[in-house]
Amino acid sequence: MQHSLKNIFPNFSHELIATIEENGSLQDFEAGTVLMRTGQYIKNTVLIIKGKIKIYREGEDGGEFLMYYLQPGQACAISMICTAKSEKSQIMAKVVEEVTVMMIPLQLMDKWMMEHRSWYEFVIETYRSRFEEVLEVVDNIAFRSMDERLEFYLKRHSDACGCSEVNLSHQEIATELNTSREVVSRLLKKMEQRGLVKLNRNQIELLK
Amino acid sequence: MQHSLKNIFPNFSHELIATIEENGSLQDFEAGTVLMRTGQYIKNTVLIIKGKIKIYREGEDGGEFLMYYLQPGQACAISMICTAKSEKSQIMAKVVEEVTVMMIPLQLMDKWMMEHRSWYEFVIETYRSRFEEVLEVVDNIAFRSMDERLEFYLKRHSDACGCSEVNLSHQEIATELNTSREVVSRLLKKMEQRGLVKLNRNQIELLK
DNA sequence: ATTAGTTTGTGTTTTTGTCACATTGAGCGA
DNA sequence: TCGCTCAATGTGACAAAAACACAAACTAAT
């Protein structure tokens, strides 16, 4: 196996890993693919093996509000939460960097909870960490102003991609923060004046 | 037992209910009590037997942003999520209407997951429904303007208390929406002009 | 080089929030 | 009951933030 599951999910037991390899199916998706749409029925739990995914909440007016990133070793909490019932997805998932994911049929996800302690712990920890992340999102929009949120957004982006260049247009950033492009442009300009960033076309360099 | 657990939690098995009655401890709290503070360590899972609780996210500047209500038959997801690790609470819980709660030591919560199918299903369903509720909160603050949020707030209040009078000051409402009192006053006045509410002192009557 | 399309900039208007202060009404003691 | 105090609400002026409309700059393709 190309990507060792044991390395990516170090807490999984050997039996669990064997079971996953036996029952799950590896799939690749290229950047830009929408893995899951709002309202779609979920039939698989998704484990991230390689690459990056962004999770969005969609507004009625077509807004795409960025909630958080999913990275290797993590799983989509929504796809776990909508268990046996096969509920509709409440979110939209988009690939930002070519991913390899492990698809696990939902009924197995439920079965393993009883059979594999390490799976149980992983699921609970996934719930916990995603819930916390969403609470942080609430904090940001409830208590912080746009300039703080923009800084946080850029920081998170560079943390996720591991680089200091953001290759997005102001419009794309505005959409993910659910504000207007002009606001983003102006705030970025202010940040440039404060020496926090350097603005190029289609690219923002983070200086700190 | 005064409040039959079987009535309040109809999906619990008889063995589970017996175990809860044996190991849990019933406690009463009067309106206004803060059951859990942000940053506090959690040692119990809380099941609501009677009354109502509001769950808040606290801002650094002392803001108290209302997330959702907990009612009989529900449980605090945060208190479940912070399992064995005994994590710190990310939220603040305040009693709005005299409550009776069942306190369950965290280690039991974890143990029962394996032993009682109906407990497992309840926990998963609690995660799911609370997660969904938080996502709706994100929707509200990310996509909606203050007037829509205020209407939603009032509707939710009347749903929760089962009446059409809101006995709160404008200031209290403003705090829970993290805005200023003047804004709430003005928006309420507009709603009154539109015939949606009738404003009295310390009371708002919902007309629709 | 011309043109179409995207990205960024800028002035104006609208909305939202802040501040300072006025008004109202309830409760309470003299 | 009168008058006092205090919390609740109203209001206008102002500041900040965001939305809107349009202009300018740049890119890429023909």
What's the layout of helices and strands?
The structure is a homodimer of 208-residue chains.
Chain A: H1 5-8, H2 14-23, E1 25-29, E2 34-36, E3 44-58, E4 64-70, H3 77-81, E5 92-105, H4 106-115, H5 117-143, H6 146-161, E6 165-166, H7 170-177, H8 181-193, E7 197-200, E8 203-206
Antiparallel strand pairs in A: 1-5, 2-5, 3-4, 3-5, 6-8, 7-8
Helix pairs in contact in A: 4-5, 7-8
The structure holds a DNA duplex (30 and 30 nucleotides).
Word description of this protein:
Two copies of one chain form a homodimer. The first copy, chain A, has 208 residues and is an alpha+beta fold. Chain A folds into two domains: 5-141, Jelly Rolls (Sandwich); 145-206, Orthogonal Bundle (Arc Repressor Mutant, subunit A), CATH 1.10.10. In chain A, 45% of the residues lie in helices and 26% in strands. The first copy, chain A, is built from eight helices and eight strands. In chain A, strands 1, 2, 3, 4 and 5 form a five-stranded antiparallel β-sheet that branches. Chain A has a three-stranded antiparallel β-sheet with strand order 6-8-7. In chain A, a hairpin with a 5-residue loop joins β3 (44-58) and β4 (64-70). In chain A, α4 (106-115) packs across α5 and α7 packs across α8. Chain A starts with a helix and ends with a strand. Chain A binds chain B through residues 57, 59-61, 63, 65, 67, 77-78, 81-83, 87, 90-91, 113-114, 120, 124, 127-128, 130-132, 134-135, 137-139, 141-143, 178, and chain B through 57, 59-61, 63, 65, 67, 77-78, 81-83, 87, 90-91, 113-114, 120, 124, 127-128, 130-132, 134-135, 137-139, 141-143, 178. The structure holds a DNA duplex (30 and 30 nucleotides).
